[in-house]
Write a structure and sequence with these properties.
single chain; 229 residues; two-stranded antiparallel sheet; elongated
Length: 229
Amino acid sequence: MRPADLAREHGISTQAVRNYERDGFLPPAARTASGYRVYTETHAAALRSFLALVPAYGHATAGGIMHAVNEDDLGRALTLVDRGHEQLLRDRETLNTVRTAIRHLTTGPAPEPATAGWSIGELAHRLGVTAATVRAWERAGILEPSRNRATGYRVYQAADIRDAELTHLLRRGGYPLARIATVVEQVRTAGGTESLAEALETWQERLTARGLAMLDAAGRLSAYLASRP
């Protein structure tokens, strides 16, 4: 098979196929005496697998999975797949948590914190982000933590954690900080949640699409593994 044969199936350029091989997403192609690449059905299966993995896990993780497979490190490849499913499950759980929080907000005050509050490091660890990211949300007017009078350190109570969970979810959904600040303010005041409901519905659709993409990618990756020598 020629690069054009692989490219035609997916509507991409022959240069893209060569680039994918160069980047290690496809196994190395054999060469003719005159230097032309010769691809096989295994290369075609690899390309189908990579292009299916991208919408499921993102370009970087998809590339990491293909690198691991092509380096015969199946354990590393499956670990990356597992982490993608773990993140999808976490996103679903966060979405459900936000919906529950909204229901509580519309029927009564925010729950009292069970502890004295969390530090910025604890909150960042819970969300899987950096402390700098949490501080950026504060600068954008999204989070408004109190301060420990003795130390001056930020203290995040239950309502702050809820707002941070919501912010993290919407950021993963591609929403800008300015819009998130408006949505969080609406949640705080328990009024005008129409835009929030719309945002959550859109993100639910994206989670569903990603889950379906993962199913498709699993089949393509399995076919590629079966085609390898």
